[in-house]
Design a protein that fits this description.
heterodimer, A: mainly beta, four-stranded antiparallel β-sheet, 48% strand, B: mainly beta, five-stranded mixed β-sheet, 10 strands
């Protein structure tokens, strides 16, 4: 069964360092989402891609976060510099075309900033 | 943007009882209403969804009902089992390239 792949699974970094997460969506899925989930809360959308274009990044802290999906396939989310408050689970999800279709989630990357 | 509220935030039931979780949303243009289940340490997974042209959908022990006029939809689980214990999220959306806005979650505990 096809799955969304994410790496690394766990990341510990010191504050002010740079960190990057990678996501490979299900093959053929045009829509890719990056969510941040703080323990005990619901996932919060950071950025949404339709193919290679960003269609929503209204909640992305653009002074430190960046995301790209250069060929409309896999994607990278970067944080520079990391802050203590960035500690969270970063979830990638994909769906076939976005509109009214199921979003499939990856296992996530657990980030701890020390 | 979409404002989403879930109630209750925690729900404790005995095995075999029914459980109902309600989700209220603000964007009247929303046309897709999914429910996700997240077990401890795992990824969210879709358990049932409904589109705006349907009032109710059932899949074995789970059902979702939609009231578009009042802007809320509910998850119904009958004959609950311990393995239903998890966090449940609603995520209304469907507009704006299919953006999904998640609620804060409901922790369901089913006691044997």
């Amino acid at each position: 069964e096809a799955e969304v792949a994410q790496s690394p699974r766990y990341k510990i970094t010191e504050k002010s360092q740079a960190v990057a997460f990678w996501c490979d969506p299900i093959s053929g899925h045009a829509t890719l989402y990056w969510y941040r989930q703080i323990l005990g809360q619901g996932p919060e959308l950071l950025v949404q891609f339709q193919d290679e274009s960003v269609v929503d990044d209204s909640q992305l802290p653009k002074d430190r976060f960046s995301a790209e999906r250069l060929k409309g396939v896999d994607s990278t989310l970067k944080i520079q510099p990391a802050e203590l408050g960035d500690s969270a689970m970063y979830l990638c999800a994909s769906s076939s075309r976005g509109f009214r279709t199921e979003a499939f989630f990856g296992q996530g990357t657990r980030l701890t900033v020390v | 943007g979409e404002n989403v509220e879930q109630h209750p935030s925690t729900l404790s039931v005995q095995e075999g009882d029914s459980a109902v979780i309600k989700c209220t949303y603000s964007d009247s243009a929303s046309n897709y209403f999914p429910w996700y289940k997240q077990e401890l340490g795992k990824r969210p997974q879709l358990i049932i969804d409904i589109r705006s042209n349907v009032g109710e959908k059932k899949d074995q022990r789970i059902a979702v009902t939609l009231n578009k006029t009042a802007k809320h939809f509910s998850l119904h689980i009958t004959e609950t089992q311990p393995e239903d214990s998890a966090v449940y999220f609603c995520a209304p959306g469907g507009t704006s390239y299919g953006k999904l806005t998640f609620g804060q979650g409901t922790i369901l505990t089913v006691h044997p």
